[in-house]
Design brief:
The protein is α+β, with helices and mostly antiparallel strands and 264 residues long. The protein has helices at 26-46, 126-132, 175-186, 188-192; strands at 6-12, 57-67, 76-86, 90-99, 102-114, 137-138, 156-161, 194-203, 212-220, 226-235, 238-249. It folds into two domains: 1-139, Thiol Ester Dehydrase, Chain A, CATH 3.10.129; 154-253, Roll (Thiol Ester Dehydrase, Chain A). It is globular. This is Acyl-ACP thioesterase.
């Protein structure tokens, strides 16, 4: 396929990208996916395909990752990325992380284009996007559905203050921090006894330096082998992000030393 349709990034998972148990961290995994799409974007711009970006920046609006198996230190992997769909608000990218012929992780990430100064979403011209991504599908613009917000007495609540180390180059809190906070609320005992199978997060508003966040967590199916944890990231009465994690309970004694943690 031509570079305008897809791009493949090859890499080797390094020890410093992994936990003590040898599995890649969430932070390193997402950085690996984004490195592939960033390189693809740069090549597209060099070809004059994405001149419309200008001085604006891409930000993640929604993440959806499915885990078959997490790569480990020493694994030779490839990340294929391509533009799946678009509309005037967002561009939807697909990712496939593989080791040889084995698919390890599949992901869909939706990006919006914002003005760095005003922080406002920039609408894109559909006819221009059709020329840029002829193999992509034009998708309908729709607002993401959010479940009812939790009451103050529901589930578990923790408060956080956004610090300098959590701000990324786009001037807002890094996307991985949301997952880090969710894992912290679930606790080490739960994470050690469960395997993460699916992750979906929708970002509604940004957090900036000094913002106060209240995170509400509730779990469903805790008495079964399949557990869903929901995480609501609030500031006062405003919802900033909604994260859903789907877990599979580990068989007793299996992979107890291999714990998937979100950050480095």
């Amino acid at each position: 396929m031509a570079v305008t349709e897809s791009y493949v990034h090859k890499d080797v998972i390094r020890k410093e990208q992994c936990t003590k148990g040898g599995l890649i961290t969430m932070s390193a995994l997402i950085k690996l996916l984004l490195l592939a799409s960033k390189t693809h974007d740069r090549r597209l711009r060099e070809e004059g395909v994405m001149d419309f970006v200008g001085e604006n920046v891409w930000v993640i609006i929604q993440n959806h990752l499915s885990f078959i198996r997490l790569p480990q230190a020493g694994d030779e992997v490839s990340v294929k990325t391509w533009v799946k769909g678009f509309n005037r608000i967002l561009v939807e990218r697909g990712y496939s992380l593989m080791s040889g012929n084995e698919v390890l992780v599949e992901a869909t990430i939706c990006f919006g284009l914002i003005n760095f100064q005003t922080r406002k979403i920039q609408r894109m011209k559909a006819d221009l996007l059709r020329l840029c991504f002829p193999c992509a599908v034009e998708i309908r613009v729709k607002k993401p559905a959010f479940p009812p917000l939790p009451g103050l007495s529901e589930g578990k609540k923790m408060s956080y203050l956004v610090g300098e180390e959590q701000i990324d180059h786009n001037g807002h809190m890094n996307n991985v921090v949301y997952i880090d906070w969710a894992f912290e609320q679930l606790g080490e005992s739960f994470i050690k006894s469960h395997t993460l199978k699916n992750l979906k997060v929708v970002y509604r508003r940004e957090y900036h330096l000094g913002d106060q966040s209240e995170v509400y967590t509730r779990k469903e199916g805790v008495e079964t082998n399949d557990v869903t944890s929901q995480h609501f990231f609030m500031a006062g009465e405003e919802l900033h992000a909604y994260l859903v994690l789907q877990w599979k309970k580990k068989k007793e004694g299996k992979n107890e030393g291999q714990v998937f943690v979100p950050c480095d």
